[in-house]
Amino acid sequence: MLYSDKVMDHFMNPRNVGEISDASGVGLVGNAKCGDIMKMFLKISDNGVVEDAKFKTFGCGAAVATSSMATEMVKGKSVGDVMSITNKTVMEALDGLPAVKVHCSCLAEEALHAALWDYSKKSNVAIDGLKEPVSDIGEHDLTMV
Amino acid sequence: MPIYFDHAATTATRPEVLEKMLPLLGDGYGNPSSVYALARTAKKALEQARDQVAAAINATPQEIFFTGSGTESDNWAVIATAEQLSARGKHIITSNVEHHAVLHTCKYLEKRGYEVTYIPINSDGLISAADVEKAIRPDTILISIMAANNEIGTLQPIDEIGAIAKSHKIAFHTDAVQAVGHVPIDVKAQNIDMLSLSGHKFYGPKGVGALFVRKGIAIKSFIHGGAQERGRRAGTENVAGIVGMAEALALAVSEMLEEAARQSAIRDRIIDEVLATVPKSRLNGSRDKRLPNNVNISFDYIEGESLLLLLDMKGIYASSGSACTSGSLDPSHVLLAIGLPHEKAHGSLRITLGRDNADSDVDTLMKELPSIVQRLRDMSPLTGQ
Ligand SMILES: Cc1ncc(COP(=O)(O)O)c(C=O)c1O
Fold it and tell me: What pLDDT, in 10s, does the model give residues B46-55?
């Protein structure tokens, strides 16, 4: 498995690990079956700018690195601009991912969208182009047996 | 110096072995099938190697066929037996924790009209010989059960299974790739009809293996072509590789008792110390019926590839049963078979010891591992759930 230096940097020194207790939106995606779970926390100001972003991830090097990069990329952006962040832009920012790891970058995009969805529901803000997340998993799925 | 804890994946060719191999790649390059002196030297080296491999498992040299890998030996034994005996029946018994070299070969045969019973292992990673006997049907033609599991190191009751196969007059093949050179194997005493072994698991070279076929079993050729290996396995012999494998095996057998005792002690120390130090960790596979060199532990809440990358940063090389390290979306079939839920299977660490490991390696491991696990747990949304 060959990761770029950027991926290794974000894996070894992940930015924004943690939780936001008064988050405006929280997204939880992935599943334990395939081995990647991402939880994304966004703090969004009244005028719709992402003030803070944090994450917790269970997953491989690529999953951690894409979570870290995605949270870096959204900070300071307006909600509309966050919508333009895709798995492709996250991947490009990391100088690419090995082919078998591309699905990890999709998870980062889904986690962002899930967090925005949560925010839009809670704050009654419509976000252009945002669809209800499909791979959002319920808390009960996280129970370890 | 990095610490190599992945001897089940492969081993370094020993210098003594390399020394025997190099002349056969240089001045002694003859083709054993030719007639002149140069060729006769190669032929002699080949037959000496056959004697060495036979002696290591209590077989006769005529019962040893050299192949290109453990995988080829497994494919050959299973497919050739199935084809040969198809008039008698089309039922095969194996386990659900075989190496893919056997499992995928069985899947291939299923698509061609064979029926396969996969005996499940128990939560200790062990197969019950009684379950194997119960699965026998009038049309059963082959039992293929591995001697030692490559992931969790469990030693299967092949003595009992061999005796059962013999009493029912069914051919018994064992994939002993992880066992040969590490634990005693005696094909006669254990009633083994066919056995696969591979050079690179006991400090020989990669890309060379052997299949033992008991005298009296007429196995058909699998690789077609020239008359090498008495017409059973065509292709100019990998003379240097074969000689290297045989020398490595002879050395491994002569050092087996001592090395097994030494490695078991290191293994037990790792198991005891990790389980005592890292909360929410568990040993996978039976504690005592396991290879002297295998440790396999699951850590709740974390994923294996991340663990391996952080260990690598500290110069510790190991492996995991997580999907990310297997190249598929599913974690190890062996860990799922012993009943681990997916997330625990993803969080497994396999440490396989070898000749080059010492107690000081355990000191280093114990210095690094607990904080690495904690670091990943701090990052995991599963922690504390
Ligand atoms: C149990 C078992 N069987 C078969 C093989 C395949 O051997 P080879 O690498 O020589 O093809 C391996 C090696 O990974 C193994 O561990």
Answer: 999 999 999 9
Q: Is B255 on the interface with A (CB under 8 A)?
A: no
Confirm or reject: Cβ of B14 under 6 Å from ligand 1. no
Q: Which residues of A touch B330 (CB under 8 A)?
A: 33-34
CA atoms within 13 A on the CB side of B204: 34
- The model's pLDDT over B177-227, given as tens digits with 9 standing for 90+, comes to 999 999 999 999 999 999 999 999 999 999 999 999 999 998 999 999 999
Tell me the two tokens of residue B151.
């992931």
The pLDDT tens digits of the residues spanning B76-114 come to: 999 999 999 999 999 999 999 999 999 999 999 999 999
How distant is the Cα of A79 from the closest Cα of chain B, in angstroms?
24
Name the DSSP letter for residue B221: P
Domains of chain A in start order, with CATH, are: 5-130 (3.90.1010.10)
Q: Residue B124: which of B95, B154, B145 has the closest Cα?
A: B154
Average pLDDT, chain B: 96
Helices (H), B14-113: 15-25, 37-56, 70-84, 100-110
Task: Evaluate if residue A137 carries a pLDDT over 80.
Answer: no
